[in-house]
Specification:
Distance between the termini of chain C: 65 Å
Strand order of the largest sheet of chain C: 1-2-3-4-5-6
Chains: A mainly alpha (202), B mainly alpha (191), C alpha+beta (201), D alpha+beta (272), E mainly alpha (325), F alpha/beta (443)
Number of domains of chain C: 1
Largest interface: E-F, 48 and 66 residues
Shape of chain F: globular
Low-confidence stretches of chain C: none
Oligomer: heterohexamer
Number of strands of chain C: 8
Number of helices of chain F: 14
Mean pLDDT of chain F: 92
Structural class of chain F: alpha/beta
Radius of gyration of chain C: 22 Å
Low-confidence stretches of chain F: none
Number of helices of chain C: 3
Radius of gyration of chain F: 21 Å
Helix content of chain F: 25-40%
Distance between the termini of chain F: 58 Å
Largest sheet of chain C: 6 strands, antiparallel
Strand content of chain C: 25-35%
Bound molecules: flavin mononucleotide, riboflavin, iron/sulfur cluster, FE2/S2 (inorganic) cluster
Largest sheet of chain F: 6 strands, mixed
Strand order of the largest sheet of chain F: 1-14-13-17-15-16
Mean pLDDT of chain C: 85
Strand content of chain F: 15-25%
Chain lengths: 202, 191, 201, 272, 325, 443
């Protein structure tokens, strides 16, 4: 395995291995919470929190865990951090937590987090895992931001709650509904692949 | 009647995939062939039903009496993870072909938000025991319905001229979107 | 150590640590969370009953809670009724106020709903829907006015306004209110609650 | 205190219960699998091309571990892989001869006459089914079925209407051999320089009539190198290339139609 | 031997004269009576909507053909024009043009071209466009105006089915008269109101065998049976089947949309299931669902099942044993 | 009489009026014939003559070696010019015996008839038929002797004489029925005896009522029944014919004898009679030369091995702009790239015309017309897609091997998709895979 520079380790999460657009991981929260930018952001940040801390813990205890209970252990670790995030949101950002509904607890099963533990933190040093976790969460956050911006702007004519479209604009309610989420993400994935194949060729 | 409503709603209206966006990974990953989609759907249904039972027990016998609501996440996920591993080992033992067919997706059920979501939503809705079981089973059937329909469509799309960048997940998501539109027809049918 | 015992040990330990850890965190946040939930209800009550300061639960059953509201001077401000029922998609939980005589609705607010965003979800914010709930007659069956009107005087006292494109959700809200009103009237008839002042304790 | 104790106890109990359950189940239901399979699987190129005759790299790994195929069975991985696999299994890799696909036809658009106007599915196989689009019934049809199946980008269609092999990229997976409806590809050792570039079993006059580059059974080559080259079914065949005397190659190359000779004439060594 | 110029091809060497564009233009011709009817009832509004949809659909189609480097002739094969016409016919007459354009673009782009273009789409493109609009702009899509021939002067107006659902017209005895439904003298989408015009078009398609008779027949059969049972049991609460057949988009759906070959099953058995399923679901939605009308959702829902139907209803091959094993 | 028929199928324009009134004309033997040692499929016969040898008319020049091949006989007398590959209507060069005609038609001495053929026992009839190199003249050229001796566990109860000639344009069978009515009936009787069947049915499409009348006129009571069939393509395909006449279904992958039936073309019946009664091997056959590219369309009796060019020349030559040359009928015939190929035993027609540019192929719109017309009740569009996108096992499950390549689907397809070509491609690939599999299993 070639060791990447720290910069590359971070940047890969943004595009080459972007968890949502390239690896198709964590699509459930991506679809579910991107109706508005604020929920998307909150979700992204909560995920970042969990991802970073559990990467740290997992990479530091990796040697102690027998392979057979690896996943179970990771899950408990992740779940603990998720609980903390959930409690925190409930305590200090009650409306957002209400809006996110069951999706905050569901971070625990977000494939990105477990996937990173399996694929990276369990094999790499603490520092490297941290960088990787940072890159991945930035990538996740970016994807959420793009998707939620499109959906909020078209679906409500607002961005972060502020009116951005003129009064002529008729909001496309479908964009904040499941159908709009699926279709928008489908098209985004198509565009991402197209860009990728273009850059690969040149 | 209430139970029937819960069941039908879980299958058609508040479909786990198309309404709650849960279990999208296997929904996209294992929907390439009808046969494996069906097996996956049944596996999920099975796990969901058991999860519903066990999580209800934990929630109502331990967590609520002792006011431990905050342990929901950890305890549910532990239960689910262990259960799925058991199921996985079991299938591997009794039916290697089935194991082969489901491949890496069995472990994925563990980290499948549909299962965890089921436990959480059932707890959130405050369902009774029987309701929880019906809800779990119905949600599994709803997942199976969605994934099998999707697999049928994707098998047909295999014989189509879909633009290159959209092949695979892209077109599957768009199809899911239109399916969500089509399933809209059922809303309001029960209330 | 055998693999099996190591597996058991590791998982048990992890469980132990995380249990302790979480208990600690919960201890820190518990109060605030409870406060948040409490605050939500209080706020709702304030919206539907003017001058409400002190509330006591008069009656409680699944899907229906009746509060009695006092002003800070101890005068009866009214009653707040929290009710849950099915909406277009899923359950709707709402709060509405009744005046001291239990004959007039003083206001309505939605606490929780999962109606379609942009459509049914308008019941939470549509001014011409929510504010037109003031001064509705609570002694009989209320009906829905469709198509909606622009100003409250256009409505009869037994009518409530509807929302365009969310007719069904409006109708469901109305149904929840009608049902709970019926129950309240039943409870009054049974003497479980009375409109006159009570001397509790 | 209970506030802390209850959750700790609960979690510990849960952890204990499920780990015990898992351990029990693990011991009961464990499926034995040779760990080498996993290891070898990782070594293999993961092209999953099936060239080895198995349904994929993993299946091949299983077969190797069970000793059903030699460690050199993966043509794609080549010697390197074979050596690694051999090391994992603790056996000797043996020698591997680098093979490469060769086309046995020189019937370019110019050399071989076309047969009517073909109007149908534009693939070699489809064309071949109804007699083909070339008057020669053995020659390359030029629709590139072989190019389409090559996963390694080792083939391309020349302007002359024939597929060309990029020797450096060809892994000798044999896909093209199977794909060509006219059996024009064959795997040969890379070092084999002299080849017959025709598969026509037509007799001389007929063969000559339909293609300028056809073997016309004149026998010049066979006379030049009787040990190595024989005439079979109106066609020159290299029975054993090792017996070709390098000195006689110029004589072989006197072939009037160029249907036999070295693959790389000295002047055209451009490739890739 | 000279190079010969004879054509080398696989048999057969005869070809029937019918072609895809011919089929498509037949459908367009069959749609014309209903188009004229809608122009008669809604005047300029109808003309403008048809025009907007046609232009938007054709332009979108052209852009995709260009991007995907496909032959431009297929722009004129008539399929995009049908999509445009049918989409326009399922829009409220008063819809603003920008929404019509959005619907058209979605219909062609998301409904058809992302699947590979003509012949590959899973869902009925016009209905995808309509479902998108319905969900994106529910208010605009449920705002009706009366036909000019009615000479009523109300700002808002409701369709017969809307009244059935929300105003309990059966109970009040104010159900729209069948004669109006038959002629089209009611509110509703552009092209759905006039039953008689649609039936004329349908007869053209049926006699020319352009459409599979099983589909409209099965839909109408299932709907009549379903609504009929309820009507017979309680005619004071439920509308008669004749009303359900003539009201709303049932006829246009049954004859022109469910019959879209691309999105309907290819096997006879599958076709029956598909048709009966649509009819049943329309009945369910109209009687018990959240919407007054269910034709669009029913067709889209059955579209999703079509691939499964196709796969599981392979006809019995000549000589195959009737019950396998 | 009620017309019987089968479900599905098509009705293409018939174009039979050009030649149906034209009596069969014996075409003078050409200067030179090339008789391929392989007539249709199977393995080539072993040549019995060498270059330079003199042969007489009807002399056996190729000996069948395998079960599914047939002997070939000289169709003229004269000197063998060569035994060498020639272009063949099937596409590949095939060894053939080329004979220079000496014009004498000297019959081979071994040709001897039997005075009372109807008294012969079944084995003898079969033997004679085999010796005479008779193959089915309905198109598939299946060795008739094989058909006449079905396995013992499959008793035959019915012989069907196939007088449908459902292919458009062709009228040769019709003329044979009119002109050799009695020979056909007698040949049919021989077939019935040889196969041990109880009854004989002659199936005729209702556009050939004259032929039916001819049969009725000469028929001695009850020796055969005549069934009038609806004019529809492919009425003559044996599985559909059996289905139409008897209501039986030949099982998938099975042959008519699985349902107790033998089907023979009218021309074959006549050839059998000729062989048994007069000892005449199969060295000539009736065919139709037509199509608008043929200046004087005709029905001809042609010697096997005559080149298409000679036949066309005899018909006044072809129009200059002819660009399609077909052996057989327009629905199932094989297109030829050169008129330099010989007439073989399966050549039921030689057609020439100018075809317009093929219509642009569009993508399938799933109109299901192909499904509604496929006489085998297959789903051609699905088969085509399975082949195109390489899902061969699905193609097999959907019955690709049951396709008889009748072309109904492609004829009717509004998108002008070469369905039959795809299906043939798929059949070949599926068979290839099967062979590979069985080879693997064996090895
Ligand atoms: C996807 C979708 C979701 C909808 N959700 C709601 C809803 O939550 N509440 C509601 O009252 N109407 C909803 N509607 C609209 C209703 O079905 C119905 O059209 C509307 O209530 C009729 O009201 P109107 O008569 O005022 O137009 C929805 C429509 C669609 C297409
Ligand atoms: C599509 C199709 C059409 C056929 N049409 C005829 C026909 O019109 N007349 C005929 O004699 N045989 C026809 N055949 C051949 C028959 O199926 C059958 O092979 C033949 O009648 C057997 O007789 P034979 O062995 O004497 O040729 C057709 C076959 C196929 C597949
Ligand atoms: C493939 C093909 C074969 C034809 N063969 C004949 C034929 O054998 N005899 C004949 O009279 N017409 C034949 N025709 C019909 C004429 O070529 C052609 O249809 C006629 O000139 C009328 O033109 P239309 O196609 O516009 O009807 C054939 C047509 C086609 C397409
Ligand atoms: C009978 C018939 C019905 C059709 N119905 C529709 C329709 O409802 N919606 C539509 O977009 N296209 C329709 N089309 C046109 C065409 O099939 C459609 O654009 C394809 O689905 C695009 O691939 C129809 C075509 C025919 C022949
Ligand atoms: S070598 Fe074979 S497969 Fe390749 S182009 Fe020539 S004929 Fe086709
Ligand atoms: S397909 Fe042929 S050319 Fe390509 S790698 Fe395989 S053997 Fe070589
Ligand atoms: S699939 Fe075969 S049998 Fe069926 S119509 Fe087509 S060619 Fe004829
Ligand atoms: S007839 Fe042609 S267009 Fe119609 S379904 Fe068959 S293949 Fe497709
Ligand atoms: S994120 Fe939901 S299943 Fe993967």
């Amino acid at each position: 395995m070639t060791t990447k520079t720290i910069r590359a380790e971070y940047l890969k999460g943004l595009w080459d291995e972007n968890p949502v657009l390239r690896q198709l991981l964590g699509l459930c929260p991506t679809l579910a919470v991107t109706g508005t930018v604020i929920t998307g952001l909150a979700m992204g940040l909560a995920t970042t929190f969990v991802l970073i801390l559990s990467s740290l813990v997992v990479s530091s205890i990796k040697k102690l865990i027998p392979a057979q209970v690896r996943i179970a252990t990771y899950i408990v670790v992740i779940a603990s951090f998720v609980t903390i995030a959930d409690q925190f949101l409930k305590a200090f950002f009650y409306p957002i937590s209400e809006a996110l509904g069951p999706y905050v607890p569901l971070i625990v099963v977000n494939c990105i987090i477990l996937g990173r533990q399996e694929a990276f933190s369990s094999r790499n040093s603490i520092g490297r895992s941290l960088i990787d976790a940072l890159g991945m969460s930035t990538g996740f956050l970016l994807a959420l931001l793009v998707l939620s911006s499109i959906r909020e702007i078209l679906g409500a004519g607002t961005f972060l709650g502020y009116q951005v479209m003129g009064p002529w604009f008729k909001p496309w309610i479908i964009m904040i509904l499941p159908a709009g989420a699926f279709i928008t993400l489908g098209i985004l994935l198509g565009i991402a692949l197209k860009i990728e194949s273009k850059t690969k060729r040149s | 009647m209430e139970l029937v409503a819960i069941f039908i709603s879980a299958v058609l209206v508040q479909n786990f995939v198309l309404y709650y966006f849960l279990g999208i990974c296997p929904f996209l990953g294992v929907s390439k062939k009808i046969d494996s989609a069906l097996s996956m759907g049944l596996a999920v249904t099975f796990v969901m039903s058991i999860t519903a039972v066990v999580s209800w027990l934990i929630n109502n016998l331990i967590l609520i009496p002792y006011d431990l609501g905050y342990l929901q996440i950890v305890s549910f996920i532990l239960v689910i993870a262990s259960l799925v591993q058991l199921v996985e080992m079991f299938i591997r033992k009794i039916s290697p072909p089935l194991y082969q067919a489901l491949g890496i997706y069995l472990p994925l059920i563990t980290t499948n938000c549909a299962i965890m979501g089921l436990a959480l939503i059932a707890a959130l809705n405050g369902y009774s025991f029987v309701e929880t079981v019906i809800f779990g089973f119905g949600s599994g059937i709803g997942f199976t319905l969605a994934i099998v329909l999707m697999a049928g469509i994707r098998e047909q799309l295999d014989l189509s001229d879909v633009p290159e960048p959209l092949k695979g997940a892209g077109i599957a998501l768009i199809v899911a979107g239109i399916m969500a539109l089509a399933f809209n027809g059922f809303i309001g049918m029960l209330t | 150590m055998s693999l099996s015992s190591r597996m058991i040990l590791v998982l048990t330990t992890v469980g132990l640590i995380s249990g302790g850890f979480l208990a600690g965190v919960a201890k820190l946040t518990k109060e605030r969370i409870a406060l948040n939930i409490q605050a939500e209800i209080e706020e709702a009550i304030k919206i539907v009953v003017d001058d409400a300061e002190v509330s006591t639960v008069l009656y409680e059953e699944e899907d229906l809670v009746i509060y009695r509201e006092m002003e800070d001077d101890g005068q009866l401000a009214g009653y707040a009724i929290q009710a849950t029922g099915v909406g277009f998609q899923d359950k709707i939980t709402l709060m509405f106020g009744l005046d001291e005589t239990l004959t007039k609705i003083t206001g309505l607010t939605i606490i929780d709903q999962k109606e379609t965003p942009g459509l049914g979800a308008k019941i939470t914010e549509w001014v011409a829907f929510l504010q037109f709930w003031e001064d509705r007659d609570a002694t009989g069956l209320l009906t829905l006015r469709k198509p909606p009107v622009r100003t409250p005087p256009e409505l009869l006292a037994t009518e409530i306004n509807s929302i365009t494109a969310a007719t069904i959700s409006s109708r469901k809200v109305l149904k929840i209110v009608n049902l709970s009103l019926e129950k309240v009237r039943g409870l009054i008839a049974e003497g479980k609650i009375t409109s006159e002042e009570h001397d509790d304790h | 205190m209970t506030e802390l104790l209850v959750p700790i106890l609960t979690m510990t109990a849960l952890g204990f219960l499920f780990s015990t359950g898992l351990v029990l189940a693990y011991n009961k239901l464990k499926v034995e699998e040779d760990p080498k399979i996993e290891k070898i699987s990782e070594i293999l190129p993961q092209a999953n091309c099936g060239a080895c005759g198995y349904s994929g790299c993993r299946a091949f790994a299983e077969a190797v571990v069970k000793g059903k195929v030699p460690v050199t069975g993966c043509p794609v991985g080549g010697e390197e892989t074979a050596a690694l696999v051999a090391e994992t299994l603790g056996v000797d890799a043996g020698e591997m001869i680098k093979m490469v696909a060769r086309l046995h036809c020189r019937g370019t658009i110019e050399a071989a006459k076309s047969r009517g106007c073909y109007s149908g599915i534009p693939t070699c196989y489809a064309s071949h089914l109804i007699g083909g689009n070339k008057q020669c019934s053995y020659g390359c049809l030029g629709y590139g079925d072989c190019v389409k199946v090559c996963q390694f980008d080792a083939l391309y269609m020349d302007e002359s209407g024939l597929p060309v092999v990029r020797e450096d990229k060809c892994t000798a997976c044999g896909k093209c051999v199977d794909a060509c409806p006219r059996n024009l590809f064959e795997l040969h050792p890379l070092v084999q320089e002299v080849l017959v570039f025709c598969r026509s079993e037509d007799r001389g006059p007929m063969a000559r009539k339909v293609c300028k580059a056809a073997c016309i059974t004149c026998g010049i080559c066979a006379r030049a190198c009787p040990d190595a080259i024989v005439m079979e079914n109106n066609l020159a065949v290299i029975a054993d290339f090792k017996k070709i005397d390098p000195d006689r190659i110029p004589d072989i190359e006197k072939c009037p139609t160029d249907a036999i000779g070295r693959i790389h004439k000295d002047e055209d060594i451009d490739e890739g | 031997m000279p190079d010969s110029e004879y054509m080398i091809r696989s048999s057969p060497h005869f070809k029937d004269k019918d072609s895809v564009p011919k089929i498509m233009y037949t459908v367009i011709i069959a749609l014309l009576p209903a188009v004229f009817a809608s122009v008669y009832y809604f005047r300029l509004k109808a003309v403008v909507l048809y025009f907007a949809c046609l232009v938007a659909c054709l332009v979108t189609e052209a852009i995709f053909l260009w991007i995907r480097k496909k032959p431009f002739q297929s722009l004129w094969d008539g399929s995009a024009a049908i999509t445009a016409l049918l989409l326009a016919m399922t829009l409220p007459p008063d819809l603003s043009l920008d929404l019509a354009v959005i619907g058209s673009v979605v219909a062609i782009a998301i409904g058809k071209q992302v699947f590979g273009g003509l012949g590959y789409n899973i869902f009925n493109p016009a209905l995808v466009g309509r479902a998108f609009l319905q969900t994106a702009f529910p208010v605009a899509m449920t705002t009706w105006i009366p036909p000019v021939t009615l000479h009523v002067d109300t700002a808002t107006f409701a369709t017969p089915l809307g009244n059935l659902k929300f105003q309990d017209t059966v109970v009040h005895g104010t159900l729209a008269p069948l004669k109006d439904l038959f002629l089209g003298n009611t509110g509703g989408c552009l092209g759905e109101t006039s039953a008689v015009a649609l039936v004329i078009g349908a007869l053209i398609l049926l006699t020319k065998k352009t459409i599979d008779w099983r589909i409209p027949f099965g839909i109408i059969l299932a709907l009549s049976a379903f609504t009929g049972v309820f009507w017979v049991v309680n005619p004071d609460k439920f509308a008669p089947p004749s009303f359900h057949i003539l009201a709303g988009g049932l006829l246009i759906g049954a004859f022109f949309m469910a019959t879209d070959m691309v999105t309907s099953p290819i096997t006879p058995r599958g076709t029956w299931i598909y048709a009966l399923g649509i009819g049943l679901m329309v009945g369910l939605i109209r009687l018990f669902g959240g919407f007054p009308e269910g034709v669009m959702y029913s067709i889209l829902f059955m579209n999703t099942i079509v691939p499964l139907l196709n796969r599981s209803s392979r006809p019995r091959i000549l000589g195959e044993r009737r019950r396998p094993q | 009489m009620r017309r019987k028929t089968f479900p599905h199928g098509i009705h293409p324009p018939e174009y039979k009026s050009l030649t149906e009134a034209k009596a069969l004309e014996a075409m003078p033997p050409p200067e030179k014939v090339s008789i391929p040692l392989l007539q249709h499929f199977g393995s080539p016969a072993k040549p019995l003559v060498k270059k330079g040898e003199e042969v007489s008319l009807g002399q056996k020049i190729g000996e069948s070696t395998a079960l599914f091949s047939a002997s070939v006989h000289a169709s003229v007398s004269g000197k063998v010019l060569s035994v060498d590959g020639v272009h063949h209507p099937l596409g590949k060069p095939i060894p053939a015996v080329t004979i220079a005609n000496d014009g004498e038609d000297r019959p081979a001495p071994e040709i001897q008839g039997s005075a009372d053929p109807l008294s012969l026992d079944p084995e003898t009839i079969c033997q004679i038929v085999k010796e005479a190199g008779i193959v089915g003249l309905g198109g598939a050229a299946f060795p008739t002797a094989v058909k006449l001796s079905p396995p013992k566990d499959k008793p035959i109860d019915t012989v069907i004489i196939n007088g449908c000639e459902c292919e458009p344009v062709l009228t040769a069978d019709y003329r044979v029925m009119l002109e050799y009515t009695e020979d056909i009936l007698r040949g049919a009787e021989l077939v019935r005896k040889a196969a041990g069947a109880e009854r004989t049915i002659i199936g005729i499409e209702d556009n050939k009522k004259d032929a039916m009348r001819a049969f009725l006129e000469v028929m001695d009571n009850g020796s055969a029944e005549i069934v009038l069939l609806k004019t529809k393509y492919p009425q003559g395909a044996e599985k559909n014919l059996i289905n139409a006449i008897l209501g039986r279904e030949v099982p998938r992958g099975g042959l008519p004898f699985d349902v107790g039936v033998v089907v023979q073309n009218v021309g074959t019946a006549k050839a059998i009679w000729d062989a048994v009664r007069f000892g005449k091997p199969l060295y000539e056959r009736a065919l139709t030369a037509a199509g608008e590219g043929v200046r004087e369309p005709k029905n001809l009796m042609v010697r096997i091995g005559t080149s298409f060019q000679d036949v066309l020349d005899f018909c006044g030559g072809i129009e200059d702009n002819t660009n399609v040359l077909i052996m057989g009928g327009p629905m199932m015939g094989l297109s030829q790239w050169s008129p330099d190929v010989p007439v073989i035993k399966g050549t039921s027609g030689i057609l020439a015309w100018t075809a317009p540019a093929p219509p642009m192929e569009l993508s399938c719109i799933r109109c299901s017309r192909c499904v509604d017309h496929c006489p085998m009740r297959l789903v051609p569009t699905q088969l085509m897609k399975y082949v195109k996108y390489e899902f061969l096992s699905d193609a097999e499950n959907w019955g690709i091997l049951d396709c008889v390549e009748c072309g109904s689907c492609q004829y009717i397809c509004p998108a002008a998709i070469p369905l039959v070509h795809w299906i043939r491609l798929g059949k070949n690939q599926v068979m290839g895979l099967k062979r590979k599999k069985s080879a693997n299993n064996a090895g």
